[in-house]
Amino acid sequence: MFLEPYITQDPKSGWIEIICGSMFSGKTEELIRRLKRAKIANQKVVIFKPSLDTRYADEAIVSHDNNFIHAIGIQHSSAILDSLEDYEVIGVDEAQFFDLELVAVCQELALKGKRVIVAGLDMDYLGKPFGPIPALLAVSEYITKVHAICPHCGSLATHSYRTEQAPSDLVVLGEKDLYEPRCRSCYSKAGQLKLKKDSISKEESV
Ligand code: ZN
After folding, report:
1. Catalytic residue among 94, 141, 175, 204, which?
2. pTM, to two decimals
3. Which domain covers residue 180, as residue numbers?
């Protein structure tokens, strides 16, 4: 379990923590756990999320187990800098949907003494590094990769598999019937099966 290197002392600068993993891996729960601990230490905490994330509730981040905490929806990462004087700990949820400027914003916050905790998907459903997350991993002090469980074989799941019902849009949030976590092997097998199916339906249409 991640334990804070400092919580009430006064280190020379702030730092960046990343919590990443597949869908259903518990990223948001871990973000909320850390933010609640900071609140207990009487630190001023704020959470930002992309404003397109409106599942379940506005102005709150809600994890799959209904644990929630209030959050501010913003369109562009630069808006985080507008209110930074008022807070000591800054959380960012669903960071994969933010613009690439988030990397510079987080570094500026850390330099100004803020503790920045960023949670997001490390890969999209195609298994490709997602948005600003790969660059954030490179510049952060602490990285926690969390895993879901693959429902097919019980291994640790690293990938987010998009089921047949999902629309062909990357920007679809983690609804259980559209995506499922899969281990590397089951994710790869499903991909090969899909390729085979696609080529059969192409042959049939010729
Ligand atoms: Zn598996």
Report:
1. 94
2. 0.84
3. 15-205
